[in-house]
Design brief:
Blueprint (H helix, E strand, L loop, with lengths): L8 E8 L5 H10 L5 E7 L4 E7 L5 H10 L4 E5 L3
């Protein structure tokens, strides 16, 4: 019997201070290739970044760590309604 992995996608949002530059955006592009990261989306006006990820592979804290490693100065996690 073949078992299929089911992915449960969650979305998390963080506020950041400094807008990402060219180097940070390149790092974010490579982060999108990480298995389990589905989408990264910036809102420059609100200075927020949203990430959609596979909750069976990551926790929100791990996503924040990946964003920080890419050079994004992630601040507090926002509550999504």
């Amino acid at each position: 019997m073949l078992r299929r992995n089911r992915m449960t996608y969650l979305e998390v949002a963080y506020r950041y201070l400094t807008p990402p530059g060219e180097a940070e955006l390149r790092a974010i592009d490579s982060m999108r290739e990480v298995y389990g990261i589905q989408r990264i989306q910036f809102n420059e006006k609100e200075r927020t970044v949203r990430a959609t990820f596979d909750a069976s592979r990551f926790k929100a804290e791990a996503v924040a760590k990946l964003l920080r490693q890419a050079g994004i100065d992630v601040q507090e996690q926002l509550v999504l309604a």
